[in-house]
Batch of 3 targets.
Target 1
Amino acid sequence: MSRVVTRIADSLVQTDTAPSTQTPAGPDTAQASVLEAARLALARDLRLAFRKRDQLVQPLAFYAMVTMLFPLSISPELSRLREVAPGVLWAGALLASLLALEFLFRDDAYDGTLEQYALSGQSLTWLMFAKTAAHWLLTGLPLALMAPLAGLSLGVPAAALPGIVVSVAVGSIALSLIGSIGAALTLGVKRSSALLALLTLPLSLPVLIFGARATQLAISGGPLLAPIELLAALAVLGLTLAPLAAAAAVRISLE
Amino acid sequence: MTWTWFHRLASPPYIYTLAARLTPWFAWPAGLLIVAGLWGGLVLAPPDYQQGDGFRIIYVHAPSAWMSLMVYTTMAIAAAVGLIWRIKVAHAVAASCAPIGASFTFAALVTGALWGQPMWGTYWEWDPRLTSELILLFLYLGYMGLRAALEDTQRADRASGVLAVVGVVNVPIIHYSVTWWNSLHQAPTVMRLAKPEIAASMLVPLLMMLLGFTLFFVAILLVRLRGEVLSRERSASWIREVVSA
């Protein structure tokens, strides 16, 4: 692990000092080094997560448990569960991704990696983008792959499962991006989880609305392209703006 | 044209005395307009032919709902000014806005619920406007929560400023998605009033209340701003001069 960090640090330092000490590099090389740094940050986050698997497992276990609460509290009849399944699937995914936000910056803030990122001279926006992408690969995508299991346990017909996977996969991109802003803003706040929920959930409600709608249409066999496109629009908006806001928030938190 | 008048606004001692001087110029017209608007709305305006006297709560409800959005916009603009030009006074304005806006939002929700009971037969209906308003209340609470959680004033200013700007981008998205959600789910049981031609005797008091609430907000904002500036500059020497004078 320390070797990984050193490698990134080296690459960051090299790319940092290169343009300032020598003649200004052309736009192509600067671009490449930005992408290279982002790629290294992404690879580092993935590798760390696969070595410490609780980050992968805990949100999924949480999702399964939230799903289990509803048959126990509403009714074990599959016909009734099928009616509430979109809400259960999406509320569960939203809560699980909220829980997973803890992992996004916390360890990096503790051990100083974030400070190194901010000081590296690399575009912090791109590094935030890479970290969020890693976070989505580690939590959003597994949640999307887990959603069919949760759906089947709620009596959702098998034909609806592909639609559910796509909607959760696309929607969780937007959730990770919105969450990255909230997680960056609450860095260094003690006992921040309730505050993080208060900041993130209101902003995530459009994702919940469109995602649950897509799931509902998938179950009833209706045309679900429109809500999925809206989810994709939210994800694109998030992709363009959220890393900027998250980078600004990280800088503020590190001051 | 010189910009000195604008730059002076960023100076805490100047804004402190200016706010003190301006407050009565907003507070008195606000009081007069609200009293006149209430008299016009509660006494002079005729009862509605469908809703009877129940519609009169609009004279408090509509201005509150209007202010809840306007205060959020003001807060986000002030926060953006503070972030971009690093003006501390702008952050103080944003910080002073939040509790006022949350109160207006709360008032709009409570009056909406009170109106809903006789008109819809229920205190709460998952109507898009009520739901959006509730989400707006959560946005205010999140802003205030973040501000309270960060002890360093500068950091709280800038972090909550980013949140306010992110929020203002999201408010229209939230509003339209909630409207869309509602139009899909809600059976049309709720009495939908077509927009009738509102009589002048009902409209004039409403406009007076709108203007009155706006001026009231400015007056309260100026008072809160002075408190905010005082607490931020508590160790500055000009405070002693102002207080002893």
Target 2
Amino acid sequence: MSMNPSPAMTGHGFNWRTFVGQNDAYLALIVLIVIGGLISPEFLTTLNLKNLLSQSAVLGILAAAQFMVILIAGFDLSVAAVMALSSVVFAQFAPIGLAPAAVLAVLSGLGCGAITGAFVTLGRVQPLIATLAMLGIARGFAFTVSEKSLLVDSPLVVAMSKSWGIISVPMVIWLVIAALLSVFLYRSRFGLHCLAIGGREQTAALAGVPVQRTKFLVYVAAGGLSALAGIVLVIRTQSGVPHVGNGWELASIAAVVLGGTALFGGEGQLPKAMAGVLIYQTIANLMNQVGLNPYYQDIVRAIIILAVVGVGIFRVRQSERRVNRAEIGETE
Amino acid sequence: MPDAVATLRNICKTYPGVKALDNVSLAVRPGEVLCLLGENGAGKSTLMRCLTGAEMPDSGEIVIDGTAYTALSATDGHALGIGMIYQESSLVPAMSVAENIFLGHEPSSGGMVNRRDLEARAVELMQRFDLRFPPDLPVRKLGPAQQQLVQILKALSRDLRILVMDEPTAALTQREIEHLFELVRTFRKDGIAIIYISHRLEEILEIGDRAVILRDGAFAAERKISETTEAQLIADMVGRNLDGKVSKKSHTGDKVVLSVEGLSSKGLFSDVSFDLREGEVLGLSGLVGAGRSDLLSCLFGATRRSAGTVRMDGAEIHPKSPREAIAHGMGLVPEERRADGLVLDRSVAENMAYPQLDRFVGPSGLRWSKLKAMSSQISERMRLRTPSQDQRVGLLSGGNQQKIVIGKWIAAGARVLLLDEPTRGIDVNAKREIYGLIEELTATGVSVILVSSELPEVLGLSDRIAVMSAGQMVAILDRDEATQINIMEHAFSRVSAGNGGIAA
């Protein structure tokens, strides 16, 4: 019957373009690693790869938080500040015991997320504004807890800073969180609801999706994940640092979008967003390897963010144009 | 006759500036196809959105199974078995067919969804209607007709007792419509109450049992389909237009003011040519998405031109921004009046002055007295009803707001007015006044391009009518040869299956 789609539309059989389109982030990462190996002899050493992965772990967990928020068509500018707060809370209370310290740190993150979530859902404040305010609040509290970096000399934390080849504790924590969250978002009603809210909020609401509740929970989860990033940071550096992660909120957005997540929500895969984190960190790592002036590194990072976001907006425009063309029947 | 499954009683709903529903009552019984008829803006969709819980009525009640509700939420609507196929797509483009069908009531255990199960259920549902979409295909890859069917499946995936269909055939071809009607007949046999909204009378005569006609937000008539005719239904719908029909004297002069040749904008419309004379009203008709608004926005310099020439008074002009177009004497009255036509939080006087603020700037800043004098003068000419020139525009009625949008261009000395749906969402009397204004302005030599989806309006006001279809101008009809029927034929001429717009 004419109403059923033609086989061509469903795309059976192997198609190179589809393959590249679906795996662009992974392929880009592989290409980048090959380039890295070619231009710097240090790049593929065990030590460098271990560092790269363990640096990626902290940004990766932040990016997982950012991913959820971007998926529902929001932005979270507070992730890095909440991470800093959690790191000093953890470091401050570590002498009492690592478990209670970790619980308090995570609670601080969940609390921040709940406040932003409440403003966004109940107060209908723009996510950008609400999370910008939370950035200031969490940073401020971080400095209230401690003006300077706090060293953590607990034997357990020191033990966890060990590594085995390229494997480190932060990396393992990151990968476990990313894997669990990927499966959860893919398989749960909650994950489907996030996609629907980001894709077309009105449609989701009319279908009976608890839109505001879901959004609230996403901000709470983002706060909790940011706090976990703070704990991992302490494991990595043995210290809680109130000023850490300045600018990482933007890096997390760039990484998520590099990983093919739609800038304005509704589309994305967490594993690809994590590949985006590795791409971002590999570029940063290579700039260090070739000894680029740190100020230039800042400029390059800023340009990457601008380019990635620019391309994201361009993609949205293109798909709108395509829809238009399909409607007026242009063949071009 | 079975008892009503749902009764709407004395429903009222007011939007800023317009009364959308005025004391409307309606009952629908199981196993009947109740057709809801009326012109654009008659309140059909709003009434149905109150029934499904998408909109809250200001007053009145909704009685379902003997329980009276003052308002329903979307969740209530689903729980009571009320489903609606909306006119605008209610699918999430990036999500798959199966995900869309079960959105909001995904089969799950402990909050987790088994995709294989989800897709199997979708396939099972599709088989009941002889459809074979791959359940994991994102719906944005489907054509409009196929998307329409997914919307129907989505409604049917819940236990339905009432199904509201708002213009379900707008994007479908004849064969697909026949298939849809078969489905509707099946639902009727199963005892589902169907409320069917359509502009296409022949469909209503074919599928309907009973018709309720709304006019300007109020109940106008009820007819049994077996005892009525198309002419009767049209008379019920237009009612007022028969006694006070829109009709305008022609003020077309000899001089060609605007001459457009081969104008194209990539992806929007192509190869459009026409002349516009002094004092002429050129109607621009076509389906939604045919490129009418895009053409206006291109002439006004707001959308890029990819080919063609535009001449004003014989000299070639290529406005690259609205600012340039305004300097050439053009003014655009946009479709989205509140978003694009006005700054709602500012005063009448300021809104009137925006296109030509420079004129009111003296050495010591804005010259308010001069500005307000201009604004008062234009307000008087437009017969604007406002407490003062300082009134915030957002607090005025839709009709008065529209007078300001038109007035600001008159103040700026526009000679070519581009009107995009100038009477949408404003009440009958205000419409009359807008028609009167168009007449007065053309008498003074202003030329008008009028985009309107209301055919009687286009037919009554235009000296000539250009019809666009799928991005091309397919005909320019003289006033005496144009009829609703031949306009519609032209409008559909380039529209095929999966390439449609929305009939208006």
Target 3
Amino acid sequence: MMVLENVTKIYRIGTFGGKRLKAVDDVSFEIDEGEIVSLIGESGSGKTTIGKMILRLIRPTSGRILFNGKDIGQFKKNELKDYYRKVQGVFQDPFSSYNPLYKVDRIFDIAREEFFPDIGRNEWKNRIEEKLRSVGLNPLEVLGKFPHQLSGGQLQRLLIARALVMNVRFLVADEIISMLDASTRIDVLNLLAELKDSGLSILFITHDLSLGYYISDKTVILYRGSIMEYGDTEKIFNSPAHPYTISLMESIPRIDERWRMRSAVIQGKEKSIRNGRMCKFYHRCFKGDESCVEPPLIEVEKDHFVRCSKIGT
Amino acid sequence: MKVSLRVENLRIYYRTLRGYVKAVDGVSFEMGDEEVLGVAGESGCGKSTLGNSLILLKPPMTYMEGRVFLDGEEVPIWDNEKMRRFRYRRISIIPQYAMNALNPTKKLKVLMDDLLREHGSDFKSHTAEILRRLKMVNLPESVLNMYPIELSGGMKQRMVMVISTLMNPSLLIADEITSALDVSTQKAVIEMLLEFKSRGFVRKIFFITHDISVLYQIASSILVMYAGKLVEKASTDEILEKPFHPYTEMLISSLPKIGIKYGERKLKGIPGQPPPLLKPPEGCRFKDRCPYRHSKCDEEPPIVEISDDHVVSCWKYA
């Protein structure tokens, strides 16, 4: 359904844009219909940039993104509008997604005016109420309110409801529950999983691995713009193969197992990278040596790919 | 357990035009020497207010009643002037968003000098110790001549840790210090904090977070707060294995764990929202969300001692 083909994004940074930063580096993966794919990485790994490129908020420097076989970069006026009828995003901070001067209903009004002007007000209103109930909100409690009168969980669910009212087929969910409290975040997660069962595809961007494990079918582990490991969620969590994934798994705070704490404060002096073609994780890797040059993405088992030169050694 | 911090019936309210917001409403607990006490709860439950009140009452925070004892001595938290003797030297804090709390216009060396002078010392007399500690957290000496903007997030976090603990305080309040960090950085910061403790730079840590799985890694006991009240306190293992309070129980069972998938086992959240603290309901504050609610819950729940170091505030056990 959504296919990323060798997508690269280079940002110009510095005062005069003189420096270049490869935020996303030759990334390819796909999301099928009714599938949830977790995109996991630390800050600066390029995960949000990928989400934004899918939403066409920014353009890739090279590579293509295909939606149902068509290059989204080529979409013009009507095609683009049609694309946004099917593909929408929900972001981390629900409070900044609303204009505080307007009632929350406005997000639905704008969606109608912009994308579905043919639908009558009453029908639209019925749709809104139906979808609000389906995300676990009582229309009487949320409609007609200002954003500050609602909780983060309610605001986030309203945004998901907006995507549902538009009947989208693909949702980019960028850290949508990291600002919610533990008691409500699981409800939003469950909601995403239910939507998936009804055929919605979701790119679930997160830095929290246990959340990713809970709902996703496939997992992409991103490090400094490159895919380090990719494949079936179960396989990646149960037999992580890349040293980066392994170290991530060991760092997850769990409530059934305690961390093995290292006694020394200083952990492994960072190795410097002299060769620009070295593996990006080389400087932090416990296995890395001089031979780790441009590791390819290798299929270690069915539906499980790893970018590491040390596989099998 | 040798008690070294005792808080008795502490009430800290926020003064607003519409009345008092009862953020910390009659909280009592004890903390052992060399203990890491975790404080858990949802946003708005009063956990940060509780931590902050032990070091600085910023308006509109208002002291209503309660007493605090540290190492056998009363801490006059209601008296801003008298608190100067405790602040930084004996009770220190790594505030929430500490990384952004460094003055951007000053070199770190000058910043530290200002802070130390404020407390009757100066940078010079601590230089050797500062260098030693910087080395421990893997920061080069050159950071002292840098501005905060020149440091990465992780470096700033380590810098703040060194600054906050420089006077070897008896009590360190760590307020959501790992919440904005990635898992691997989170673990590294916590390892450093524990290392500081084992070297005696801090004696005990009051660790505030909304993330119970982080507390499981470092805290010896956990205090759970809900809507300004203490609902349960016990050793970490006990509270995770057999929580008594319905809120604690529901909170822990809602946490996603590796090994649990939506398709196999569906986790449940807690329906509803915490009550407004401007006008909290009579009796138990969790009653509107509680599946065990009965008529008794309209009265203030008693604090029940389940065992020596396990207390719970619920009518179920009265």
